[in-house]
Amino acid sequence: MGYFGTNEDLPATISFRAGPWTGLYEAGKLRYLRLGNCEVLRMIYPAIRDQYWRTAPAQILSEKIQLEAQSFSIEYTARYQLEAVDFQAQYVFQGDADGRLSVEMHGEALGDFQRNRIGLCVLHPIDTCAGKPVSIIHPDGSRETSTFPSLISPHQPFIGVQGMEWSPAPGLQVQLFFEGDIFETEDQRNWTDSSYKTYSTPLSIPIPVQVQKGERMLQKLILQAQSNGQTTTEPEQLEIKVLEQTYTFPKLGTDWNPGITAQTPALPLDFLNLLLKLDESKWTERLSAAAQTAIQRNKKLGISVALTSTADLSPLIQALAPLADQIQQLCILSATHPVPAEDLMEAAYAALKAHFSHIPIGFGTDGYFTQLNRNRPQTTTFDFLQFSPNPQVHAFDTRTIIENLSAQRDVVRTAQGFAPGKAIHVVPITLRSRSNPNPADAIDPRQHSLLTAAWTLLSLKYLAPCAALSYFEWVGEKGILPPDGSSPLADYLQQIAEFQPVCIVDAYSSDPLKKDLLLLENGRKERLGFEVDFETGEIRVL
Description:
Elements: E1 14-18, E2 21-26, E3 29-35, E4 38-50, E5 58-67, E6 72-82, E7 85-95, E8 101-109, E9 113-125, E10 133-137, E11 143-147, E12 158-161, E13 163-166, E14 172-179, E15 183-187, E16 195-199, E17 209-211, E18 216-227, E19 240-248, E20 251-255, E21 271-277, H1 283-296, E22 300-307, H2 313-320, E23 327-334, H3 342-355, E24 361-364, H4 369-374, E25 384-387, H5 398-403, H6 407-418, E26 423-429, H7 450-462, E27 468-475, E28 479-481, H8 488-499, E29 501-509, E30 515-522, E31 527-533, E32 538-541
Parallel strand pairs: 20-21, 20-27, 21-22, 22-23, 23-24, 24-25, 25-26, 26-27, 27-28
Antiparallel strand pairs: 1-2, 2-3, 3-4, 4-9, 5-6, 6-7, 7-8, 8-18, 9-16, 9-17, 10-11, 10-13, 12-15, 13-14, 14-18, 15-16, 19-29, 29-30, 30-31, 31-32
């Protein structure tokens, strides 16, 4: 058994130093670049994305690693293949004793294919960047003073980037320069990634781009810094501190799926989440089957409805009328746009409230938060906002899944910022994207592991300000429960239900990538904690 009950251990890492810089090398990537105790960059890595934004996997063909006391050199060759994509590149990572780091990519297309992106990417950590000034150097040499956004920027905060200079901590000044392409920066928290990403090529260039066999690509970046000597190098003692802030414990649900039978074990959840697409012929049958399960299992229904026009409202009201007492919430989506248009939302709200005055009616998207952030509601005629995240939009490794937990709180804060006073529903939450071109890619082999239990417990912590959360499906390959037997997550949910929490008590971790805490309180003022230790791969109940 591997890390946190998965089938694999965490990938091996190699520590390196380049003068004042420290970091980890992991399978073709540089992670956690630090000056003293300050994390300056989260990752430097290459990405080859096809015309569907799928990431071509890397096969490392050769690797040469040289480590010295104050410098390092890593050279490797990787080949990327995904259907038509066939690309090979040589990389050179170097760090000198004087504190200069460089990364070079020399790539060649081994066949004809279409791509949306090929090149080096840099991830900037949120904690040491958010709200900090940054100087952007443009290709013509001009400079622009800007700021790493605190709340999530719906669009690229920095474009036309040839260089960046910023101070991640007092006494530190960092410079990052790019060659071989024009770069820009996006706020990856739109997809619940806990980073800003600087990448090439600009999205202003039409995609996909045809790549010809034999085409060569060169990119390079240079990283360096100046310090006034105040950088702390003493190891920090990890601290977890209980805060005064509390949040009402949210309603918890799971996706209804046809695999639920009379033999499926019970789950102590409040509601079954159901997506209805009214342009599909069998939507009423789907509604009837989910309602029957809800009655049998004594659950409420949380329904999301994708409307094409106001003509859908009459058949929808007719279908929902017999189930009115079962419905916990109803969210309006658009079948043709990222979010409902203002007139459709207002018409739907008025018609549905006239028949179901007791049911909260929401505005939302079946897609990522970015769809909501870039298409913010133009009306206040709704009771809650809704969107659907997963932690694996851009990368699929376990370390990234862990890193991306904290961004969920930023998503909630941003939503509250443009919809003040409205409840937030995060529905459904999945481990992988539900919109993969290949349905098999939506299934994660870690689904029923202790890792998923740990991730879900801490997701509860970071989404604590929300009113309703729905995790995974009830049963199956994408479920809380496997097709037979139980799972660690199901066991922890039972323990939580027996405790009868009324609130989540906020807690601070000085290094949430090592250890973090979900803390609950019940009506008797008793507290129950779940401490997740990412170094040992354990969950401790406190």
